[in-house]
Specification:
There is one protein chain. With 353 residues, the protein is an alpha+beta fold. Helix content is 46%, strand content 18%. The strands form three sheets. A five-stranded antiparallel β-sheet has the order 7-3-10-9-8, sandwiched between helices. A three-stranded antiparallel β-sheet has the order 4-5-6, covered by helices on one side. The protein has a two-stranded antiparallel sheet with strand order 1-2. A hairpin with a 4-residue loop joins β5 and β6 (168-174).
Length: 353
Amino acid sequence: MADAERVTARQRAILTAIVESYIDTGEPVGSGTVSRLPQTEISGLSPATVRNEMAALADEGLLEQPHTSAGRIPTARAFRMYVEQISGGAGIYKLSAGSRSEIDSNFAGLTGTQAVLERTSHVLATLTSGVGVAIAAVSGGDVLEHVHFSRLTEARVLAVVVTKSGLVRDRVLALDRDLTARDLETAANFLNENFRGWNIEGVRREIARLVERERNEYQRLLTSVQHLWAHTVPESGATRQTIYVEGVANLVTSQEDRERLREVLMALEAKQRLVELLNAYIDTRQESVRVVFDLEEQAPELAGLVLIAAPARMAGENRGTVGVIGPKRMQYERTMSAVGYIAQVFDRMLEPQ
């Protein structure tokens, strides 16, 4: 990034005006346009003065000229500087009363991590005109409340696991051997009677220990239980986290966008890639919203898009990640505030109603 110390206060004000004008219009910004903008810091400057300052900003790698027109557009480095400036201000997480009320009303009456995260993706997509993303954290320390198996067809089973945190995981299992409805009921009863209140990873370890120890008919039951549990809750490294995505159509604003949409859709439909993307950039220990511009380093299909995300916690424990994926021309302050507000009030949204 350009050395911020080499950018004067006046140049920074001009750059902010250009970034905000470009976000609003999508058009290159000329010196005449800037000189007519109402910002106090640049009011009264002549177009010639603004033009000279814009040339200096271009030399710093903060502005570029896309065509032969006189207008300039911000570079990725300019957007980064703009976001840093916003992040350092007092406005973050201070949404208007109307926006806060809209968020709160959307979450009214919801309980459980899954329901809140699913609604989160919708709310963020609506508020920001970007792609709302929410993922539920996979926690080996989450506690088993109840498990149920239903036979669908031969060697296909519906498994439902409910955890104490309120997360409901359902999976259709393709097994390598058929199990009867009685086998499934017996396995579910065994798990519920013996492992309710155990953490998820502890169940796996204990079943493996029991299978190793037993050498009789009891082992046949245990083997079936182990087989079902391994398919229902894969090992941590292979677990597919629950992810909610909404608002992809918000990315389509031009013909060029439409041509890219298929690639973006492919990236978002490969949800595990999106989980990896968020995990690569969002540290569950961080306290603030993070803005990531270099998504193409993890997913080339998302080149030119920006991720704004934050961890969501309940009682100090990470419950997942909430965020927005959008174009560089997004309303950063509104989006960062919305993401930050939802992350901060996650505790309250998940309190028993």
